[in-house]
C-alpha cells in the first residue's frame, strides 16, 4: 500500500487483497466449492460469502460508523444512516470462477453522500490492482492509467455482457449487439462488469455497455473510468446512472458514438424511438440494409 494513497483507499486495498487471497485459495480446488443458485443462471458460492465477510470485517474494523451495501448481505451490516457507504461486490464473475475461467475480481467503492469517492478493483488471478481517488487519477499497480485515444468505432474493441436471467429480452439485446458489433473491430464478453470498466479505464478496451447491472457492479469502475479521462452514463448519456441498470462507458469520442447507437434502447428513450424499435426488434440487423451502417468487413477468427 502506498503512503501517498488516501487512508480510506488504503483500507479498501487491504480489504480487497484479503478477499483475493480467499478466492485464490479456493481456485486451487474449485470443484470442491459449494455452489447455490439465487435464480436461474445466477450463482453464489461459499467463496462469495467468505470474501464478502473479509471485506466487511476489514472496512468496519477501520471505520465502524460507516455503512455497508454488499451484493450478498445487502445493507444488514454497518450504519445504515451514514453518509459514508461502501459498495461491495466480493466476487464479480462468479460463473467464470466456478468454471475455472480466470476472469473475475473484487470490487469495492466508497460513496460519500451518494458520490463515489474511492474505488478498488482487484483481479486476484493476475494480481492486478486498479485504484482511484476522486481528483487524484486512476492507477493500475501504482502506474497511472488513461483511457484509449481511438476516435473511430471501426478501430475499437468494445466489451459487453449478455442477458442471462429469466425475463431478459434476448431479441432486444441481439439487436443492440448487432448495431454495435458491425461498427467495431471486435466485441467481447469477458463476464465481469467491474473488470470490464477497469479495462476501459486502462485503455485495454475502448468502450463498454450492458444492461441489468447493480450499483455494486459499476460503482468502483465508474470512478476508474472518469479519473482515467473517460465518460460513463446511461444509454441516453445521462451521468446519474448508478441505479438505472443500464451503463455505457468509453473514452470521450467513443462514448459519444456508443450513446448515439444505444440511446434508442434505453428505458428513457422517447416514445417515438421505442415504437420504431419495437417494429424491428424481432429481426436481426442486416448490415447491408441498416441505414448509416458501415460497409461490412470480414472479421478475424479470434472470437
TrEMBL record:
**Source species, domain of life:** Bacteria
Q: What are the required cofactors?
A: Mg(2+)
The signal peptide, as residue positions, is none
Protein's GO biological process: inositol metabolic process; phosphatidylinositol phosphate biosynthetic process; signal transduction
Gene3D superfamilies tied to this protein: 3.40.190.80, Fructose-1,6-Bisphosphatase, subunit A, domain 1
Q: What positions does the entry give for Mg(2+) binding?
A: 71, 89, 91-92, 217
What is the official name of this protein in its record? Inositol-1-monophosphatase
Q: Which organism is it from?
A: Ramlibacter albus
Species lineage, top-down?
Bacteria, Pseudomonadati, Pseudomonadota, Betaproteobacteria, Burkholderiales
